[in-house]
Design a protein that fits this description.
Layout lengths: L2 H13 L10 H9 L6 H21 L5 E5 L3 H15 L5 E5 L1 H7 L16 H34 L2 H12 L8 E4 L7 H14 L3 E5 L15 E2 L2 H17 L6 E6 L6 E2 L11 H6 L4 E4 L11 E3 L2 E5 L7 E2 L5 H14 L4 E4 L6 H14 L5 E4 L6 H15 L21 H11 L1 H8 L2 E6 L2 H17 L5 H15 L6 H4 L2 H12 L18
Parallel strand pairs: 1-2, 1-14, 2-3, 3-4, 4-6, 5-7, 6-12, 13-14
Antiparallel strand pairs: 7-11, 8-10, 9-10
Length: 530
Amino acid sequence: MPYQDHIIEMSQLIKGKNGTWDGIDPEAVARMRMQNRFKTGLEIAKYTADIMRKDMAAYDADPANYTQSLGCWHGFVAQQKLISIKKHFGTTKQRYIYLSGWMVAALRSEFGPLPDQSMHEKTSVPALIEEIYTFLKQADARELGMLFRDLDAARKAGDKAKEQKLIDAIDNYETHVVPIIADIDAGFGNAEATYLLAKKMIEAGACALQIENQVSDEKQCGHQDGKVTVPHEDFIQKIRALRYAFLEMGVDNGIIVARTDSLGAGLTKQIAFSKEPGDLGDQYNAFLDCEEIDATQVGNGDVVITRNGKLLRPKRLPSNLFQFREGTGADRCVLDCITSLQNGADLLWIETEKPHIEQIASMVDRIREVIPNAKLAYNNSPSFNWTLNFRQQVFDAWQAAGKDVSAYDREKLMSVDYDATDLAIEADEKIRTFQRDAAKRAGIFHHLITLPTYHTAALSTDNLAKRYFGDDGMLGYVKNVQREEIRQGIACVKHQNMSGSDIGDDHKEYFAGEAALKAGGVHNTMNQFA
């Protein structure tokens, strides 16, 4: 609703109270309403699901319309990211937030730092979603509050043109609230447990849930060894559980991201149930590493299956896990992806061991033979050594083309000694254009980095500690933090304003009028940063 319409509506409401509400300023109410556009997490989930659906359609029309996100482990981190995006690019379009289960486990569990194995409290995931949106809504309230203050100043100065310009800016205000793709791991239990957690995550505001095909109680980080997958029918049950949760909560446009870890997972916990040759269970079992035996070779406790009239004994480890055949990971990924999309998933996630466009595209091409509009969310993971990977890719390409690579040691290309070389420069350019190129060639709709703010927090804190506790002393903070905040226009240099002090002052004036005791007076030291 336009700003003036809010004021008119509130004026009529107050007028109808026979003078008992005359102490309420209709324009103040209008401002507070606009500063609190989203009343519930479900409103956010519905709003952001529509955004993602439109973005997915735009990508189908032109892969240049890919989307991006950074993983955030705290509401403040997400808030500052969106404030920065609006400042530098003028819009939040095609920029999302990723909520990483890894970072929840490592940073937000009451048990303390944990590995990414679904050992953290599952309620900590919806709690973080709610926290992130609380901070994003506060960013809206803060920025609109500054517009309202500028509007008051323009009125006081009698500047009608500026007043109208500010009203237009208020009416066309773009929120900091953007879609979250939230990691539900392997569902934290069976399909019922998955459904219950999904409802909490949706209620907190998540419009997109990412679920993986690992065994819930054996779940590992996608970049660690020891991953164990489940048969397709088990995973389909959890995809259905997510869809039921979305539909029950009224988010009919909710997005399910189906992740396959099959490329790096060589184990399964169970042999799939199969009714007849060629069904989904039989296709899953066809990847098992088996040896042909006869009935006399069946030992105590052996598990055997039949295929094409042959008696087969799957290789079983002491852990009671079954092993897949070497080299079947890509084929299993393709089948996982097709099956997921055919059973209600909207986006795919193929977890790979390196960022190699042609490796990803080789699987996506096969998936698209069956489902032409298949598209991915892809983890631009910090677990990859991007510098070494891409320098080695360039080295290999040069070598294959007959170019002289004698000046380079392929195993030591990470060395700073190579930083200024033509090979390193070409590799950096490939890293720079990786997202654009992969969106076009490999069907990647959404590029995310799972753990970037974990690493940036560690790096910036290390640099500050080194300088502040060293010879630089206070200059270590002033030169490298505060001075840069001021010069780069970082919002939180005015940390009192960022925390809501000015919003509180506005409320005090609404509630108490001239009797309000405000914090933002002449003696507020934040005025030094005006």
